[in-house]
Amino acid sequence: MELLERKIREEGRVLSASVLKVDAFINHQIDPVLMDSIGREFADRFSGEGITKILTLESSGIAPAQMTGLHLQVPVIFARKRRSLTLNDQLYTSEVYSFTKEQSNEIAVSHDFINADDHVLILDDFLANGQAALGLLHIVEQAGASLEGIGILIEKAFQEGGEGLRNRGIRVESLARIASLENGRVQFVEKVGAQ
Amino acid sequence: MELLERKIREEGRVLSASVLKVDAFINHQIDPVLMDSIGREFADRFSGEGITKILTLESSGIAPAQMTGLHLQVPVIFARKRRSLTLNDQLYTSEVYSFTKEQSNEIAVSHDFINADDHVLILDDFLANGQAALGLLHIVEQAGASLEGIGILIEKAFQEGGEGLRNRGIRVESLARIASLENGRVQFVEKVGAQ
């Protein structure tokens, strides 16, 4: 997606060969107009799949999921990272290890909001090693729902997450695919071949 | 706001005389069409204030803030609850005690995204004792920015937060104001007088 790639080039900051900081428009400050375009793009890509629910993870997935849900006209669920006092019902839970934060989080979704009739689109901001996507997938499986695909804003294609998911036959749509962050420079995957 | 009040009546669950659960459409599952209407409503109410930034708190404030930002065409910042490894710049910080979760969180906003020229609209899902709003206000003050108002989805008008903020001369716009949750029933504040 040209618009997102341009934004990454202009406002992203490469902190190391594995860390790209996008705090200026995705995960601390949000560009709401960009998020609207992103939501429209995901809605276009998954419009034929009969999606009934969008599942994301707090917090950075919420804005793009909200916009995708608005364009597809379906509810959005965000998995919670900790149990709160008002989230004490029957829960699907999964463990997600964050390499960035070096900690493991239990994520949880109430039984009330996903069931076996649902066709779920998982959305997240980053795909690197795939831990968050696998945690969300595990929740979809527990609900007996159908996974229709995974939408990602930024895939670090030099890490193994995307390949692992695609090898399982899952449709993964990443709006920007980064081949390398070496030498402080963002290099995108060439778009010649299909992803 | 009629639409939000109806949603609260139909899908909210009163857990006690002080706890209203809105997990079905605000803070676990999100109704994206409702959020669009909420964003439009806040944009209308604050359209004359020259807002340059919207400030909210992860996670439940993000969806309504995204929509308000989209309608006002201004960036949204969500304060982070913990320091993450990629959020290690110069930070404005504040301490917020959550009575619901019975814990204190440090919230943080990077210096990069709010400055003395900004006119800030604070948004949050609930206003009860006012702790979160005061924490966000403290961040606006540290930045030397101007606070133009506070937008709230659901105000528990039987708690002291809203009165405290209004007594400080702050414009607080709450889309639904709850007078009581006694006897398992949601009673809204009568709309005869101005709020």
TrEMBL record, chains A, B:
Catalytic activity: XMP + diphosphate = xanthine + 5-phospho-alpha-D-ribose 1-diphosphate
Pathway(s) this gene product operates in, as recorded in its UniProt entry: Purine metabolism; XMP biosynthesis via salvage pathway; XMP from xanthine: step 1/1
Cell compartment(s), UniProt: Cytoplasm
Location (main, coarse): cytoplasm
The keyword Cytoplasm appears for this protein: yes
Keyword Transferase in annotation: yes
List of residues binding 5-phospho-alpha-D-ribose 1-diphosphate: 128-132
Signal peptide interval: none
NCBIfam families found in the cross-reference section: PRK09219.1, XPRTase
Subunit comment: Homodimer.
PANTHER family per record: HYPOXANTHINE/GUANINE PHOSPHORIBOSYLTRANSFERASE (PTHR43864), XANTHINE PHOSPHORIBOSYLTRANSFERASE (PTHR43864:SF1)
Similarity remark: Belongs to the purine/pyrimidine phosphoribosyltransferase family. Xpt subfamily.
Physiological role: Converts the preformed base xanthine, a product of nucleic acid breakdown, to xanthosine 5'-monophosphate (XMP), so it can be reused for RNA or DNA synthesis.
UniProt protein name: Xanthine phosphoribosyltransferase
Species per Swiss-Prot/TrEMBL record: Halobacillus kuroshimensis
Lineage of source species: Bacteria, Bacillati, Bacillota, Bacilli, Bacillales
Name of the gene this protein is made from: xpt
